[in-house]
Write a structure and sequence with these properties.
The protein is mostly helical. The chain is 60% helix and 0% strand.
Amino acid sequence: MAANTSMLHVRVDDDTKAQATEALAALGLSVSDAVRLFLRRVVADQAFPLELKVPNAKTRAAMAEAEKIVRSRKARFATFDAMVADLEKVGSQ
């Protein structure tokens, strides 16, 4: 006896879909297989099967800064070397 099924439509941007399709194919899964697996875990565990965390204040500030940079289309550093120097300075603190 065939199981009753229903169609699930999900909107996702083309780039994400293509990258996910490629990554899942390397695992031997289709996108549909992955969604079914995800939903089965939700049912089995009665919970979201991935760890979700609320970003801390430092992460939220970095996310806000990144969003501001994207909106302004201006880089924080004039050159790659300047960025690396700042990363090394911050990393040594």
